[in-house]
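Page 47, continued from p. 46.
Same chain as before, 578 aa.
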Amino acid sequence: MPDTTAAALPHQGETVTVSAYLATRLCQLDGHHVFGLPGDFSLSMLDEMLTVPGVEWVGCTNELNAAYAADAYARARRGVAAVLTTYGVGELSAMNGVAGSYAEDVPLVLVSGMPPSRARADGLLLHHTLVDGDHDHFVRAYREVTAAGAVLRAATAVAEIDRMLLTAINECKPVYLGIPADVAVARVPAANLALPLRRSPSDPTSVQQFRDALTALLAQHPSLTVLAGPRVHRRRLEGELAALADLPGVRIATQAGAKAMLDEAHPASLGTYMGGMTRSEITRDAVDFAPLLVLAGTTLSDVLTGLFTHRFTPEDAVELGFETARIGASLFHGVRMEDAVRILHETAAERDFAPLPPLPPLTRPEVAEGPASDALTQAQLWAEIQRWMPDGVTAIADSGTALFGALGLHMSHDSDLLAQPIWSSIGYTLPATLGICLARPESRSLLFIGDGAAQLTVQELATILHRGHTPIIVLINNAGYTIERAIQSPKAVYQDITPWDWSALPSVLAPGVPSLTTTVRTRAELAEALVAARERTDRLVLIEAVLDPSDAPEMLVELGRGAARANGAPSASVEQAG
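Result:
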């Protein structure tokens, strides 16, 4: 993880500004891009940070979008990402994005440029404050959505910056750094920069105890089933998961937040597990009735478990967390997930399970019958995308029809799906596409997003275009919030949105920047547009797919019915939504 090539290592006795120290640390942790907006309290900090070789500023259209973009960047790089805002108005605008990072285990660093220390101490009634003399309202607010936070003083800035960054990488959670304008330019010793920050090591005694207990447990069972969650992704353990899958007697399913973490064509892949919403009964039964189930980096939230319809008992499973492993009632503290997965692989290899019968191929969406000139349906949309989708793509799917359609796709080799199924903040994925384009320039991004979600954050399309990125965007125009229609009151006025001219947007947001836009209403038009999108690698492609507002992927319909029952919605509303 550390990258000390971004800047020359300091000599003893050298000093740097606090801002330059922070920027260098971010580079060492592979966080070379800093997302955000400037403000008067953060200008000196920005000027100092941008003197550090390897730091690139990514100016966004608002702070919420900056937080979303940084979140996706950190996920893709498996490292930290920084969001820089001004005090009060800026940091509050970013808070929703930071909360999503907390819910989904993303090591984000929110950096707030604050008023000078003296002004804070004197309680001056400044702009961007609540004019009550209390300058810590927002510091306290951020305690609710971060793992740790600090307002820096020059005397302790080095230690506090390192402490915050170590917290972020150890816990995979966001942290908060408030930097007063005078502290931002204060000079501090640079010597610590020669010592890269590293995650805390596992406790050797706990590791051995875990190994012994796991070896004894595996000896009692004929096979091993793993349900892998998004936290495995955060720790960059996809390779270890694939190595485990290569062993005889092992089956691996993934949660929706970790789809395609294991190549879905792998013989041991069970595909995506979502409790009662799992598309394959073979997959569901293999997880729910596994003789020995390992929960590796999972989160058992409502969407990820199909509204808690999982039939396995979590307490009976082996559980591998970021810093703790559990076997039954025995907790092994200080066992990092990296070591726990490695030990699982080693002990399973030593156990030498007998081979299991081959799994049937995972089902793929099929092209629905009917004239290609008929109005496009959700089933046809996803079937055509399945047939067309290239290898090695990074797909991003927004909450709603986009996500639940994409979850049914069979992801090809070296592909990835990024989504936000736990926090589920609609609009997240459009700025996230900016973060993915910057984090993975070698892979073309493919965004699936609904019209309602896009209206929240579409301004960031301007940044994507002006920076020369060339993603493919499939915008599902179904005239509003179909995910909410699927839950309750599908014809209510609040489910509708104002219509936009989506094809005109790229030229409005980035005049002179080439793009390719197409509106499709039939299966034939979609197929033609997808072929053109693959060929035009030199520009952003926007495909507006017009669909009936009442049409939804089958998985979303099932979720809507379940959510409606849980919310006490009238049964007639559920039937209408279906």
